[in-house]
Amino acid sequence: MKFQIPKKSIVDTMDRMFEVATKGIRADFKLASRVKIEVKGSSVLFSATNGHLNAIMEVEAQSVESEGSAIVDAGVGREILRTLGGRDSDDHIIEVEEKDQSLRLKDVNTTGRAKTAKLSTLSQDQPFAIKVKKGSSYTLPASEVSSSLFATWKYRHPEQYEPKYQTMCIHFLEKETRYVCGDGMRFAVLSRKNASDLNVNDKDAGDKWILPADQAAIIANAISFGDTNVTLTFPDAKQCFVEVPDAGLTLHLKGIPEIDYPKYDNHAYRFDAAKVVIDVARSELLDALALVKSVRDKDAEKQENAFHCFDFHASDGAICLEVPKGKYQCKVECDAEIYKVSEDSFDSCYSWLFLNELAAASGHEYIRFFANSPEGIMLAQPMDLVAKDGDKTETDDRVDADCPAMVENSNEPDIIFFFSAAVEEEDEE
Amino acid sequence: MAKKTKSKKRPVFWLSGNYYECQKTFRSICTKLDNPKVEVLDCDWVSESASADARPASIGQIVRSLRSRDIFDNRSKIIKLKGLPPGYTELVDALQFVNDNQVLVIDGPIGHRAKPPAKQFVSAKNSNFYKQIKKEGFVFEFATEETPVKAANWVKEVAAEMDKKIDPEAATLLVELQGGDLDVLYGRLLVLQDYAEGKVIKASDVEEVCVPLFLKSVWNLIEGVCERKGDSCVEHLQKFYEALSLETQSEFFGEVQKMLGAMHHIFLFAILVKDRIVNNRVTSDALQQGTAGFAKVDIKEAIACARQSSSGRCEKEWPPYFSSGFIYQKLRDSSFESLMKWRKGILCQAFREINKIRTICRQGGSNDMSYQKLCLDSMIMSICGMISLDEAEQLRDASFSGIIE
Q1: Predicted pLDDT at A390
Q2: Are residues A403 and A299 in the same domain?
Q3: A121 DSSP assignment
């Protein structure tokens, strides 16, 4: 096997293969972290698998001298290719030659000093082929799908917990696509308007499909292309094919757990249940949360997933975040607009992590809280507010209060969080 | 917001001891909560190289579980900790989040294993965490081991609760065979519940299920030796070898030592009571008198005890060498009656031969399976009078290839 290929092209492909080969590896899978490079005609096929997700990417070679194939370590191969030729060598050509059970890599553009590397080949990999089956199919811009998956997968449960909280749901509707992920206590729903109507099986309820959250993150990285489309095809609930035809990339995800995803829409859009609506400037909330974080119990902080909570009071034009007990305590107030629906004030107790994630999830100026009941579900949405037009104020028609409407931007995704209050300690008698 | 009023006790439970009682108590907690959601968090120490999913639950994870509510599942939640997590003492502050909807159950011993290579068990009884649970919650410490009588009663109770009673005789036999470890007894009882065909578990079921094949051969062999039935002994000795043929070499050596130990025990007993037997009749008095004052003395402890006492004598009462169960069993054992008909000189010769083979098997022939078999064959044949002691000795000498230290 001997071929020449632009460095940028091979490095980009190896990055994507590295993602598949080294992350989310199936527990009993021994042949991970390998990439197979195969030359057929004028194309080079790169393939990798982690036991759940198979990936094949076909890239056009600059020139091919001889066909053949070789298996290399994904990490070492990627590192060598990235560094071969130095920093400003993206436009260089790399020559790849298999010889004596090793891969000789050479920067062709270098003159004078030699810039070569030798990479041992491996004898065994997991053979697979991807034959895309027919099923429910959805075509969307790759950059949108990639960024949406990447923005939401992290809200899964951090530990091995109930399988449904290790997955995320993609809800395809005719007019919009929603990406939902949560850990049982807190959920994020990211929605994007579809540029053109999607062909969905259920016109009213839309189609819901599940992806394991860790594999969704790998897919998000693998399909992060610029101006091109990706097609997601679900022949059944257990498998998904992801194709980016323009880039020659095909992914096949197997073994998706067959579970019913929680009915998130029962909570995510219940704006009408709010008793109080609270608008807070995001920057002020972030500052307040930073102080709340600073009074975390330092011993507890050493523990992973420590659950640091604070009391949340909203009344008289301000919200107050308070940690009233423990080794370190704090009380911080920030200005807020409080709109009465049926109550003037609101008190509850929340996890610092949930509010911090909410505040960090977007660059919008405000966070709007739709406070329901202290022990119930809090709904929150980052947003920009429509400015007053003289005396006229456009209001948010989702709630029965005079709060200003949000700025709607069809190019930007909306993200809504809903989360439960933390369990409080019992009072001493 | 309105906060709940504190009751005197919190639903936090520590269940330690035998598996059956712990499970029974846990089931009753579940019943009281009416279909709760059970979240099991494994907290036992595992190797540091274990994968992320195999790692024990951290304190943070436990606190998170205690303080969070699942939006889509509003049932009461039981957080069951299997063992104690590292740094468990910090959990004392988290007990305030336990309430009727968030129940905490610690299922494991009161303490934890030290980090390997240390092997000791580190008790948690002095920790604030344990004291707080004892004060505010419920600590159940069930026995893991019982004396034979209590263990037999426990077996009877458990069998009745499992809907298939066990005969008192069968319960006693089960404890005799398996010892007083309640978890082992429960395991056997589970098998017997399935195996026994009648409405009640009988001694014959226990014999069938709980006696390993090689142990049956040992019993038959000892019975044959007592009755000096050479052919029967050789046959059972071959069965003993067959039953152990799939075991490892060290397992075989261990079982040989156990068998010789059992023979040593019976012959020592026989020699002690021989003088008390009148007309070869085995009576309770003869057995009691023969073994009176024969106790299991710990020499080191006895010396230390004597040094401490003003009289220079150890006043401690040592446990009897032969248990009352063993004495009672021999009273009913027809083969022991046959042994009592031996002349004392023959008994002593046999006892000496058994001890000699025990020593040989432990030392010189300790790593040669075929030589150990030869020793056992020659010993049995000589005790049963099939060959003389000298011939047995010659047989062993001719085949010996080991090193005597």
Answers
A1: 72
A2: yes
A3: P
